[in-house]
Structure formats: structure tokens, C-alpha cells
Amino acid sequence: MPPRREMRLLWWAALLITAGCLLPMIAVLIAAFSGGTSTITMLWDTVLFGYSWTTLKLVALVALGTLFVGTTTAGLVVLADFPGRRLFEVLLVLPLAMPSYVLAYAYTHLLDHPGIVQTTLRDVTGWGARDYWFPEVRSLGGAALMLVLVLYPYVYLLTRAALLSQSSAAYTAARTLGCGPVMAYVRVVLPLCRPAVAAGVLLAIMETIADFGTVSYFGVQTFATGIYQAWFSLFDRAAAAQLSLGLLAFALCFALLERFNRRRARFHSGQRHESLPRIQLTRQSSRILAWAVCAIPVGLGFFLPATGLAIMAENSQQSIFDPRYQQFLKNSVMLASVASVLTVAAALTLGYLNRVRATMGSTVFLSIARLGYAVPGGVIAVGLLVPFAAFDNAVDAWMRTQFGFSTGLMLTGSIWVLVMAYGVRFLAAAIGAHEGGQSAINPNLDMASRVLGRSAYGTLRRIHLPLLRPSLLTALLIVFVDVMKELPATLIMRPFNFDTLAVQAHRLAADERLEGAAVPSLFIAAVGLIPVILLVRRMRA
Known about the structure:
Layout (H helix, E strand, L loop, with lengths): L2 H32 L3 H9 L1 H32 E2 L3 H7 L8 H12 L4 H10 L14 H25 L4 H8 L4 H12 L1 H17 L2 H5 L5 H10 L4 H28 L14 E2 L3 H31 L8 H34 L3 H11 L6 H27 L11 H24 L4 H9 L4 H30 L2 H6 L7 H10 L3 H27 L1
Parallel strand pairs: 1-2
Helix pairs in contact: 1-13, 1-15, 1-16, 1-17, 3-4, 3-7, 3-10, 3-14, 5-7, 5-14, 5-23, 7-10, 8-9, 10-13, 12-13, 13-17, 14-23, 15-16, 15-18, 15-20, 17-18, 18-20, 19-20, 20-23, 22-23
């Protein structure tokens, strides 16, 4: 194929991918301003302020919680020496495998009024239901705790990496000037890690805004639950689009604010001569405290809920090998496989175009494609269903008028529109994994290949793809697991009578059949362990 035609096809493919990423956001904007205002006015007078205030409070609690847990644990495993430090360096990543709504199901079974803990407390003490006070797990604080326990690894991983690459010069200077070890870490070392810490907290905030499973199960009224209620309870697509626009504004404001602050700040840690010194914890009390600080988030975020889910699943009299569950598993794996392959192919197209033709246009394409991660799944679902439903209805009306028969809904509610929603949502993750591998490929290899007569496509096939295989496999795995866990987009957009493991877990939990919900929840968590194991192997390398 001639080089010009190759580049033209690559450019048009990238343009089509970018248009697909922009479509839900533009559709939400148009639907929000063109629809009626009766429902949103009613919501404004009743619950809209509550949605906003609750969402802000939840974001603030999760941001503070992940900041504290992530930076504290990272500082301990990098800067302190205590028994089990090397083990905790790996174990602290494990909660990433747990979706927050799975944690919510497990802790409700443990801590709710009829749960194991309170039942045992009443049996031991003889108290009645009104004789004691117990924290309510189904609350804003409970939802924030679930999200902190599964999202702090974002902050931990990025802070740990920043600390390992930091020079000891600033820390040594602070100690020379009279700072103690803890104050030197808080006042000197940690501020130099601010870009990494801010990036981790921003990831946690984006996941919090997008969360639906945890907040809906705990009865916390946020924008995410409001979108679902407007769509399925009030049957008002315009109101759902207007709420989606509000949630989209939340997400983009946080992303732009963090990027603006980071761009204005400058950090110079100097040339790295030696690593930060590790503090020897000689006192027994200090060692126990450090061990407990690292053990608590791992225990609460992974081992305790995993054990609880295993006990619940054993008593549920349900099996993943049941024909119904086999169908749920088949649906989940099929969606995740197709979505991951197409999403990684889209990331490869955008990334390769930016490499061979680094123009303003290719840079803009990548920037737009990354926006999807800041857009919650519920917003993407509404933004895709509105235009596709309008298209289907227009085609159906035309066919009725011209030929006298109905075409029905050809695209709306189809698997392919759902796969498109997954692609828009998780394309940024695939781009990140692809860029990590592409940056290691020397540009001289591209030039040598072209000199030897290879076209751009030939260079991609013979040079880049073999070298990118580990990065592309990682991207495939990340997107696969994210799709397996995705709940709001699947709930809104799935075809009729087409359920996944995540949907089944949500349905059983909503019906208070928590022991039954443990079976699909355990399988989702087990699949989530795969990328965590790969990440641990990379940390060990």
C-alpha cells in the first residue's frame, strides 16, 4: 500500500475513534439543553442540592482517606525497616483486586444488624436491639470507607515509585537543620512527591465520582444514583442527561483543577546520587505500630472481605458451575474479551499515529481519547443511548412510512453499543499501557526500517508489535478486568435478558440475598487478582 494512502487510512481511523469518544459527551450536552425541564425543576426543588452536597462530601472523605493511607503506607515501606516490610510492600496492592461494591456486600453481611458481628455481640452480652449503639455501615461514612479501602493503592503505588526515585539530598539537609525523621518526611520528602500523590488522589476521585454499586447499595444519594433513577424510575431521558451533564462537569472540573495546579508547580530533586535512607525502628512499640498501620488496610481491604465472601458463598447453595451462572460468566467474558481487543486496537491506532506523524491533530486525538476515564460509566451510557435511540427511531419511522414495516431498535440495546461504551470509558487505560511500551522503542528502529523499504504498516507489524507484546497484553488484561467489574454502564445499556456477573451480584444484593451475591462477587474479585499479580511481579523485578 502506498505510504500516503496508509497515513490517510490511519488518520481517518484515528478521527473515527476520537469522534466516538466525543459522541457521548456532545450528546449529553445537546440532550440536556434540548429536553424538557419539568423533571429537573422538580429535582432542583427536592433532591438536586442533596445530590451535589453528598457527592462533594463523599469525594472529600475518599480524597483525604486515600491520601492519608496511601502516603503513610508508602512512606513506611520505603523509609522504615521493620519486620514484614518486604511482604507488606506487595500485600498493600491486593485491595486493587476488590471492586468497592463487593466490599460493600461483604461488610454489610458482617456488620449490619442481622450480621455476624452484631448477632454475636447480642448473644454474648444479652443486649437487645436498642441497648447499644453500633456504627451504621449503610451510610455515607460506610461508602467512603469501602472506597478508601479499594482505592488507596493508587496513591500508594505512585507515592512509592516517587520515593524510590528521589534523592536523599533534600532529606539529609532537613535532618542537618534539625528536623526529626517524621517531620523531614512530612515537610520535605512528601512535598517533592506532590505530582505523584496528586495523580493518585485524582484517580481515586474519578473512581469515586463514577461509583454506582456501592452508593446505590448503601442508599447514598449521589449524582450517579440520580442518573439511574431518572432513567429507570422516572423514565425521563432529558432529566438523566441533565444530571449526567452535572456529573460530567464535576469530573472535568477536578481533572482540570489538578492539571492546572500541577502545571504551575515545579519540583527539582536534583541528580539522584543515593536512595533515601531507611530508618531503623529499634523500639518494639514502633515496630508494632508500623506493622499495624500496614496490616490494617490490607486486612480490611482484602483478607477480611475475601474470607467473609468465601463463607457466604459456601452457605449460599449456589455454584459458579450452575447453568445460569455459566451463562452469566459467558456473557461477562464475551463482553470483556471483545471490548478489550477493540479498545487496545484503538489505543494502538492513536498511539502509532502520534509516533509516525506527531502533529497538533494527533496530539488532540490522544487528549480527547483520554477524557473517557474522567467520564463516569452512567454518563457514557446516557450519552450513547440518546443519539442511537434517536437514530433507530428515525430509521423505523422512515421504514414505516416508505415500506410499511418496522425495523425496531437495531442499535439501541445491542451488544455493540455497550462495547462502544466500554471502549470510551477505558481507552485511557489502554493508551497509558501502550505508551509505556512504545516509549522504550528507539526511534532509530523506525528510521532503519523505513530505510530498508518497510512501509509504516510494515514497521508496525514487523518491529513494533513484537516489541510491544508485553505492554499490549498488559493493556488487554487491564481493560478486560475493568469491563468485568463495570456496573452502571452495563445496568443501563445491556440487552434485554443479557446479564453479567456484576449485574447478577448487584441484583441479588439489592434483594438482600447477600449470600447469593457472594458467588459472582468472588469470581469478579478472583479475575481482578490477575493484573495485581502481574503488577506484583513487576514490583519484584
